[in-house]
Design brief:
The complex is a heterodimer of chains A (about 220) and B (about 280).
Chain A (H helix, E strand, L loop, with lengths): L6 E5 L6 H10 L3 E5 L2 H6 L2 E4 L5 H10 L3 H9 L4 E4 L1 H5 L3 E2 L5 E2 L6 E5 L4 E2 L2 E2 L4 E6 L1 E2 L16 E6 L1 E5 L5 E7 L2 E9 L2 E4 L7 H22 L1
Parallel strand pairs in A: 1-2, 1-3, 3-4, 4-16, 5-7
Antiparallel strand pairs in A: 5-6, 7-13, 8-9, 10-12, 11-14, 14-15, 15-16
Chain B lengths: L3 E9 L2 E6 L2 E7 L1 H10 L5 E5 L2 H4 L4 H11 L4 E4 L5 H10 L3 E4 L1 H5 L2 H10 L4 E9 L5 E5 L4 E2 L4 H10 L4 E6 L11 H10 L4 E4 L5 H9 L5 E4 L1 H14 L10 H5 L11 H10 L9
Parallel strand pairs in B: 1-4, 1-12, 4-5, 5-6, 6-7, 7-10, 10-11, 11-12
Antiparallel strand pairs in B: 1-2, 2-3, 7-8, 8-9
Helix pairs in contact in B: 1-3, 7-8, 9-12
The chains are: A alpha/beta (about 220), B alpha/beta (about 280).
Chain lengths: ~220, ~280
């Protein structure tokens, strides 16, 4: 029997390179559409929430596009919701980026600035731009990080870090200039990463591959 | 911190080219081939620079960008001839992750603010091509190193970051393509003057030059070209000779080599700097 192919929605709210994400989906055989339509998002088998830039402005745009409730409802539906880069930050309750901003509140926790990363007497640059390593905070088995080697490098661009309230939500941590932070979250149907798996070479693509195969499995389960 | 090593590919028409001090461009081959080779060998990002766009206003780069973005999954920065927010949007849609702007930003600095608002600061790299005058001044040049601006490179870097630049791609025109090492003083002055990452470019002739730019110059990333291209060329020369007749292909016809440089592959460079205590990403 021919199985239905899962389709993911890449949420388009202006900032960030959505095309890199689309290319990565394409590469692992995952059908995707770039959209800001609430109905298309609600009907998708999985939702990717990307993003770059400022937290406050991103939330403003999501409100303007009527996507805040849509994303919360989607998260509550139990289908996979995936946050990337700014996306992981938006999932949390609030951010202290240039004042206080309410986030989507899908995961309890806050977003804090990278606090004075340094190596010896050399202050490191903010944002962190570049490759850094993932360390397992708990088992990656059955998560999108399954099969990624411990200490693998991923590509980061960020000035802020997520801090989930529930430490069990932390899937991976990363260290930048002595600052240890949460670089990936998994809680029920929510997976998110602070880095860009779509720009992290073959190992990053593996994360998309895992997401694709989980989506295929869950669709087969329904049929 | 993991230092990034970023191959820079200068493009003229359909070809990868390389000059010395941004002049005398030689055709080396098909850029996509080099890009894929570097991706597979552990490049941390890639830079495509259209060497003639800001002179003639053409942008043959888009097709190359599109093809590269589909087969390499690392950040791709594209520059050369981008004049407006719309120009930037087109390049990003083709698959670039960042853009590098030089000439247009100097002519109208407000473009930096507009672009960083529209696409996020981390998407906007400001290219500074600095010429070191005999009296010690560093002056940014525009139009691929051809025209003077009368500005001071350090002051311009600070201003560009205030306007929203997310990174600085810093080229020493004097050192570029010579293989004689980086201008450490230039790199350090700018790296210490701005809070954002500085990518040093121009002069790498051997792996220890790269180490110096990082440790003495305080560069956050290093962009290199000739040292890699001539090594890659040794690999391609036998199996891939496709390049069009556009531009100066005498070098390829002669089967030339470049004696001032120590052609070195990316993994060798990374092994060297790691052995000297500088962390960077290694591809297993």
């Amino acid at each position: 029997m021919l199985m239905a192919s899962p389709k993911v929605a890449i949420v388009d709210y202006a900032l960030g390179n959505l095309y890199s994400i689309k290319h990565a989906c394409e590469r692992v055989g995952l059908e995707s559409m770039i959209t800001s339509s609430p109905s298309e998002i609600m009907l998708a088998d999985g939702v990717l929430l990307p993003g770059m830039g400022a937290f406050g402005e991103a939330m403003q745009t999501l409100h303007k596009l009527d996507l805040v409730t849509v994303l919360r409802d989607y998260a509550a539906s139990g289908r996979p919701l995936i946050g990337v880069c700014l996306g992981i930050q938006l999932l949390l309750t609030e951010s202290y980026e240039f004042g206080n901003h309410k986030g989507l509140g899908i995961i309890d926790g806050v977003v804090e600035p990278l606090d004075h990363p340094h190596e010896g007497e050399r202050d490191l640059k903010i944002p962190q731009v570049g490759w850094n390593q993932l360390h397992a905070a708990r088992s990656w088995f059955g998560t999108p990080l399954e099969g990624i080697p411990e200490n693998e490098y991923m590509y980061f661009v960020h000035s802020f870090v997520p801090k989930p309230q529930d430490v069990n939500a932390v899937l991976a941590t990363t260290n930048y200039g002595g600052v240890e932070f949460c670089s990936s979250i998994q809680q029920k149907n929510i997976f998110a990463c602070l880095f860009h798996p779509e720009r992290s070479g073959i190992q990053g693509l593996k994360i998309y591959k895992n997401i694709a195969s989980q989506l295929h499995k869950s669709l087969e389960g329904i049929e | 911190m993991n230092i990034r090593i970023i191959p820079r590919l200068d493009i003229k028409g359909p070809n990868l080219v390389k000059g010395i001090r941004l002049e005398g461009l030689r055709v080396l081959g098909k850029p996509e081939y080099f890009a894929r080779y570097y991706y597979e060998n552990g490049a941390d990002e890639l830079i495509y620079m259209d060497a003639v766009a800001s002179l003639y206003g053409r942008n043959s780069l888009l097709e190359i960008v599109e093809r590269t973005a589909r087969e390499t999954f690392i950040p791709l920065c594209v520059g050369g001839g981008l004049r407006s927010v719309d120009d930037i949007r087109v390049v990003l849609r083709a698959g670039a992750d960042k853009v590098s702007i030089n000439t247009a930003a100097i002519r109208r600095p407000e473009l930096i603010r507009e672009a960083s608002r529209a696409f996020g600061s981390s998407t906007i790299v400001i290219g500074i091509e600095a010429f070191h005058h005999a009296d010690g001044r560093y002056e940014p040049y525009i139009n691929y190193g051809r025209d003077r601006t009368g500005l001071d490179a350090v002051e311009w870097a600070i201003r560009a970051v205030e306007m929203g630049a997310g990174e600085i791609l810093l080229t020493s025109i004097n050192q570029e393509g010579t293989g004689k090492g980086f201008d450490i003083q230039l790199i350090r002055r700018i790296a210490e003057a701005v809070p954002v990452p500085v990518i040093a470019h121009g002069g790498a002739g051997k792996p220890s030059d790269i180490y110096d730019a990082i440790v003495d110059g305080r560069a956050d990333a290093v962009s290199i070209a000739s040292i890699l291209h001539y090594q890659c060329l040794e690999q391609v020369r036998s199996d891939e000779k496709e390049f069009t007749a556009e531009g100066n292909i005498d070098f390829l016809r002669r089967g030339g080599t470049f004696s001032k440089l120590q052609p070195t592959a990316l993994p060798v460079i990374k092994e060297y700097i790691t052995s000297q205590g500088v962390a960077c990403r290694h591809v297993l």
